[in-house]
Request: fold
Amino acid sequence: VDVIRGRITGADNEPLEGVAIMVTSISGNVNRTARTDRAGRFTVTFPNGDGDYMVTVTAVGYALRRFEVKRVADEDVLLADAKLAK
Reply:
């Protein structure tokens, strides 16, 4: 199981609650979604994951953020932290 965890913050490092997260496996094109909690944290899991994902972060009033997360070794958890700009 691949676990993708992250924390979403604003420009002044405050945590953002309710931010929409969509993680897509690049090889299988499978989507999983989540929303951030009060601390700006989210978790998404992929059973039988391939270790290569695109993360899309959207929040009202902030610029869309999209980036790739890749397993480079034998990590249990892939980190997908992001800072959003207004």
